[in-house]
Specification:
Number of strands: 8
Order of helices and strands: HEHHHEHEHEHEHEHHEHE
Largest sheet: 8 strands, mixed
Subcellular location: Nucleus, Nucleolus
Helix content: 40-55%
Bound molecules: adenosine-5'-diphosphate, magnesium ion
Protein name: RNA helicase
Radius of gyration: 17 Å
Oligomer: single chain
Number of helices: 11
Family: Belongs to the DEAD box helicase family. DDX52/ROK1 subfamily.
């Protein structure tokens, strides 16, 4: 497709893998191409988001096609929505007695909190339950004051989640969508073992994996390929590291 070729050249998008979908030109394209729920488009418009950034144009169709994705794009290029839109579209509304179906892993509490805010804005108007794992929520799960089945999406840092997995207060066997944000940091010394434990706990056979990062050092890329199935790889600009 000539339009896609021109778009990719102009925005420095390198996309590789089998059966790569065309990039989207606007968020509205998602209505016809992927039956995007109307409220999601409304929530984007409310924030004055009309045109996708390049990482969004490429990663959103790949994720909505159910593909594993390795994505590298600079800081500030809109990676949160690039995985947030497909996640909220796929989960759509609260499902009773199932528990976490989406998991977003982030290296710091500050980042986890920012992601939480963005996902909340996206899911407005729908009964989708989003949980950020912190000291308070982890204690409630451990003491069985709150059931994890109340929630659909979990956002956490690695260490806090590993603790909750190990003490049996959180299970991840129903997670269908796993996102590793700032993955370069998640695969660094200190986080690597925790990330491994979390990957092991996501035991669902139909798990979709996505990895987003501002840099893609070759070690991270190698690691990514060991956990993914026929991923689509999207690089915007020049990968560093
Ligand atoms: P990254 O994770 O790549 O560093 P973020 O997801 O944090 O980037 O987004 C950076 C900023 O860009 C945020 O303030 C976000 O609200 C804004 N943004 C994201 N997507 C769009 C868009 N399509 N149009 C306009 N602004 C956007
Ligand atoms: Mg980010």
């Amino acid at each position: 497709n000539e339009d896609a070729r021109v778009y990719r050249k102009h925005h420095h998008c390198k996309v590789s893998g089998d059966d790569i979908p065309l990039p989207i030109g606007s968020f509205e394209d998602l209505l016809s191409r992927f039956q995007l729920h109307k409220h999601l488009l409304d929530n984007l418009n409310k924030q004055n988001f009309t045109d996708p950034t390049p990482i969004q144009a490429e990663a959103i169709p790949a994720l909505l096609n159910g593909r594993d994705v390795i994505a590298c794009a600079p800081t500030g290029s809109g990676k949160t929505l690039a995985y947030g839109i497909p996640l909220v579209q796929a989960l759509h509304e609260h499902k009773k007695n199932v528990g976490f179906r989406g998991l977003i892993l982030a290296p710091t509490r500050e980042l986890a909190a920012q992601i939480y805010d963005e996902v909340i804005k996206l899911s407005r108007g729908r009964d989708l339950q989003v949980c950020i794992l912190n000291k308070s929520t982890a204690t409630k799960f451990r003491n069985k004051v709150v059931s994890p089945q109340k929630y659909d999406i979990l956002i956490s840092t690695p260490l806090r989640l590993v603790e909750s997995i190990k003490d049996g207060s959180i299970e991840l066997n129903n997670v269908h969508h796993l996102i590793l944000d700032e993955a370069d940091k998640l695969f660094e010394q200190g986080f690597l073992e925790q990330t491994d434990d979390i990957l092991a706990a996501c035991s669902n056979k139909q798990l979709q994996r996505a990895l987003f990062s501002a840099t893609l050092p070759s070690g991270v890329e190698t690691m990514a390929h060991t956990i993914m199935h026929a991923p689509i790889r999207v690089i915007i600009g020049h990968k560093e590291g």
